[in-house]
Amino acid sequence: MALEPVSLFFFFLLATLLSFARTYQNVSLGSSLTAQSNTNSFWSSPYGEFAFGFQQISGSDGFLLAIWFDKIPEKTIVWSANEGDLLSSGSEVELTTDGQLVLKAATGQQMWKANVNYTGVITYAAMLDTGNFVLVNSNSVYSWESFKQPTDTILPTQTFGGGGSSTTLFARYSETNYSRGRYTFELKEGNLKLYARYSPLDFIYYPYWKSDTEGNANQLVFNQSGSIYLTEKNGGSVIQMLSSNEASPQDFYQRAIFEYEGVFRHYVYPKSNASIERWRRGWTSLTNLPENICLMKTGDNGDDRGLGPCGFNSYCQLDQRPTCQCPEGYSFVDPDDVSMGCKQDFVSQSCNEASPESNLFYFQEMRNGDWAFSKYEHLQQVTEDYCRQECLGDCFCAAATYVNGSCTKKKSPLSNGRIDPSIGGKTLVKTRKSNTSISENGDGDSGKKDESALILIGSILLSSSVFLNFLLMVATVVVFRICHRKRKVLQPCDDLRFPIRNLQCFTYEEIKEMTNEFKEELGCSSDFAKVYKGVLKFGNGSCVAVKRFNRMITESEAEFKAEVSAIGRTNHRNLVQLFGFCNEGQYQILVYEFMSMGSLVNFLSKDSRINWYTRIQIASETASGLLYLHEECSTQIIHCDIKPQNILLDDNFTAKISDFGLAKHLKTGQNLTITAIRGSKGYIAPEWFKKMPITAKVDVYSFGILLLELICNRKSLELKAEDDFQMVLADWAYDCFMDKKLHVLVEEDNEAMDDWKNVEKYVKIALWCIQQDPSMRPSMKKVTQMLEGTVKVSIPPDPYSFISSI
C-alpha cells in the first residue's frame, strides 16, 4: 500500500532524527576506532563542535589520537594522547568492555591508557561540545576527562590545577611536531611559572616568567567570555592574565594555548563564515606575560645553557613570531629544526702564538644584537677599534659586544642570542675570510701572496749591487733567528706527526710552570698517566687538567698518540676539549680543559646523589657525544672505554666524554675492525671475548650499562648489595623489568618516582643497548632519538637470549 504524502514526510523526518541520534550517541563499551588514511575515524560531540579520534598530521604518514575543532577547515587540535608521538595506520583506540580507554599500535602493543579514577563502573564515554572527552561511571560521574589532563591548550569552562587536574602544560616541539617541546607551564605551590630548557630532556632551571602570587593561587580559570585568571583557594581572583571584550561563546570559538615558542596566547575564531575565517588574537589586554620571547630572562645571573627559542650560535628576532637565524659563517645544525642552533662552518682561529692568524679574520656587525651569556672578559672605557683588536688577537674570542665604551668578549659556543632595538650597541661576530684558502698550517693564500711579494722585492734589490752585501747580512740574521726559534719551540713537536690544527705545542718548562711543578694531583687517568691541575698563563688564566704519561711504560706512548690523534680531530660540546700537548724527549703530556666537578663516578651513590633530571641530562649529553664520534666526526671513532670515570662534569653538570687513549679510528667506508680487548671490567661488550669483529656497537653496550647506573644511581657492580641478585645491576634491572617491579630500582628517589613513564622508557632503552647480540643493539643515533622521544621504544627481549640460542 502506498504511503500518503503527509505520512511520507513524517517517515523521512523520523528517519532523519534517528540518523541524527545514531551519529551523536554516547560511545558504548566495546567501541573502537582505527587510524586509516582518507577515512573519518572519530567520535563527534552532539552538535559537531568537537571530535575525538585519529587525525592524520599534514606532511606525514602518522596519526595522532586527538581532540580537535571539527566545524572549521583547520581542524585545530586541542588535546592529544601518547605525549604527541605519531602512530601508524592501523593503530586502534578502544573503550574496552571493562571501561578502559586503551590506545594500541598497529602491532598490538599498548601505547597509552587513560588513568581512570575508579569511583564506579564505567558505563559509556562521550565527546562533549565543550571539547571535553569523558568516561562516565554508573553514578553519572566523570571517572576520567581530557580537561583534567591538558597537553598545551585549555578551553572555555576548563580549569587548570586544583581538583585533581594536571598542573603542567607542555608546549609542543614545533608547529607540526606535537611531542613535548622545550617549554613548561606550571601551577605549583601557589605560583604560575614558565620554564625553558635547552632540550626536552634537559633539567628545568630558573623560570623566565612567574605570577608572583607567592602560594596564593589555586586554579587557572578560563571562562566563556574569554577571560583567563588565577583564583585563590577561597575562590577570589588573584591576577587577571588575559581578557577579551568580543569573545562571546555564541559568536566565537576560543582556545588558549602555550605555544611552541614559549608564549601563552588566547585565540578566537568567528563562527560566522567559518569556511573563510582564521584564528586571530582574542585578548585586548595583557599583563606582564612575556610577549617577546627573544628577550626572556632566566634569572638574575642567567644560566649559560643556550636557553631561549634558539640554540647555540644562533640568534632570535621577533617578526610576529620569533625566528632563529645564523650569523655569517654559520649554518643550522638541522635546517628542519632551527631551534637546535647553528654550527661553525670555518676553521677556528689558531692559538699558536708563533703563527698568529688575526689577518685571516674579520667582523660581521650585528646592530642591536647580543648573546646574553658566554662572556668571559669585560673591558671598560675603550674604543670600538680597541675592542676589535682585542678580540682579533684572542683565539678564544668568538664575538665581542660593544656598547658605550664597554667591550665584552664572548666565547664559543655563543649562547642566548637575540636582536631587538631595546638592546642597543652592536655585537661583532668573528668570521674567517671566505676567500682564504686554509692550508694545513693555517697560512692560506695570504702567505703565498706575501711570499710572492718578497720574491719580487728581492729581485729588484738583487739587481742593484749596492744592496747585495746588505741583503746577505739581513738574510743571515733572519735565517739564524728562524732556525733558533724552531729549535726552541717547534722541535719538541717534530716527533708527533698528526694532521691536527689549532693545538698549542707546549714546552716541558711551560708545563712545569703551569702546574707549579706538578703540585696538585687530581687523580690517575689510567695505568699509564696521572692528571694534575694547572693554570694557563695566557688568555684569561683558565684552569686546565694536565695529563702526564709515564714514558717508562711502553704502552703509554701508544695511548698518548691514540688520544691526541682522536680528540685532536673533534669539536663537540660533549667531548672534553684538548688545548695542547708536549712531546719533548721523555715527556709526553696533554693539556685539557678543567672540569670542576670531576668525574661522574663521584656521584653514583646515595651519599653523593645528583637529582633525577640532572642524571637524565647527563645520559642525553653522553649519547650526543657518542653520536658525534660514531657518525658526525670527520673520521669514525670508537671510544672503547665508556664508563663513569670517563664522563667529566663542569659547574653546570654538563657531561663531556674524556680519555681517548683506547679509541679506535675507522677508515672511510669501514664499519668494523679486529683488535685486542679494550675497555674496563663491567662495561666491555661480550663480542670482545668472542674475538668477533668490533663495531661502534661496543660503545652502545657500555652506554647501556652507564644508563642503568644513572637511572638507579648506583654502580654496575655492588659487591655489598643487600641481596645477591642485586649485585650485577644489568641482571637485576632486567629481572625487575620482567617482574613489573621497576619501582624497586628507584624507590628511594622521589623525583624518579614522579617521572615514572620516563623511568620505564629509559630502562627499556638501556636493555636494548646491552643486548648480547650486537646486531640487536640500536645505533647511537637511534638511542638519542629514543631518549628525545622522537622514536618509540618497544619492549626489549632478554639481553641473554642470543647466548641461549647459540
TrEMBL record:
It is a single-pass type I membrane protein. CDD domains: B_lectin. Keywords: ATP-binding, Disulfide bond, EGF-like domain, Glycoprotein, Kinase, Lectin, Membrane, Nucleotide-binding, Receptor, Serine/threonine-protein kinase, Signal, Transferase, Transmembrane, Transmembrane helix. It comes from the Eukaryota. Its main location: membrane. Residues 1-23 form the signal peptide. It catalyses: L-seryl-[protein] + ATP = O-phospho-L-seryl-[protein] + ADP + H(+); L-threonyl-[protein] + ATP = O-phospho-L-threonyl-[protein] + ADP + H(+). The chain crosses the membrane at residues 453-480. It is an enzyme of class 2 (transferase). It is found in: Membrane. Residues 18-148 form the Bulb-type lectin domain. Residues 517-803 form the Protein kinase domain. Its EC number is 2.7.11.1. GO terms for cellular component: membrane. One of its GO terms (molecular function) is ATP binding. Belongs to the protein kinase superfamily. Ser/Thr protein kinase family. PANTHER family: G-TYPE LECTIN S-RECEPTOR-LIKE SERINE/THREONINE-PROTEIN KINASE SD2-5, G-TYPE LECTIN S-RECEPTOR-LIKE SERINE_THREONINE-PROTEIN KINASE LECRK1. This is Receptor-like serine/threonine-protein kinase. It comes from Rhamnella rubrinervis.
